[in-house]
Fold this protein.
Amino acid sequence: MKKKKIIGNIILVLCILVFLGSGYYLFQYFNAARETQSELDELIELKEESLEDTEDTEEIKTEAGKTILKKYKKLYKKNKDMIGWVQVKGTEIDYPVMQTKKDNEYYLHRNFKKEEDVNGLPFLDASCDVEDPNNNLMIYGHHMKSGMMFAHLMDFQEEDFFKKHGRIQVDTLYEEREYEVVAAFYSQIYDEDQDVFKYYQYPGSLSQKKFDTYVKNVKKLSLYDTGVTPEYGDQLVTLVTCAYQTEEGRFVVVGRRTK
């Protein structure tokens, strides 16, 4: 009897420790989310303030020589890794898009200040070029339990949501751009030897053959028919986040730039 009581007490203590540990982890997690959201709110506010600044007549150009839009000038001055902005109306997706050619995943766990941050920021694949109209611009973002980053990309699972929000804004620093949704589908990271369509092998510049293969397969995988079929020469954007339907699962939304 005494032995059973001791074992029971040990189990109780272990349960309490697990509970306290889990509580601490959740506190840290959601506290980090609050801090990140506060910083992002500041960036959005800075973007809006820039538009209202009538005294700002300074002209800033990208490395390609294109004039940066007024609303992004102050943000670009703060961090030159910023290459644009992504927004999906009707969701919380409203973030700067980053790109680092030498370290593709630099912003996987870093914020706009380049500090360690579990939420990271959406980032464009290093092989992509926003200046190239024929590129498939592949942008990655975390699926955070707090709802941050690309968690709300999952809203496109529902056809009703797509019908109300079938367009995605993905600006460059110098140009506002809109994309109409082509497909929304589940996928995963496959083993190298698996003979299956792997969307993640198609970022950046695509030959006509690869473009046609990509469009054909994403349309086939789509959860519903969007009525939009890109043609070679159309610029594509592909938004990617983690999904949990299987190990290494992903959820993907593909868009075509409107003309």
Notes: The first strand starts at residue 82 and ends at 87. DSSP finds four helices and nine strands in the chain. Residues 17-27 have pLDDT under 50 and may be disordered.
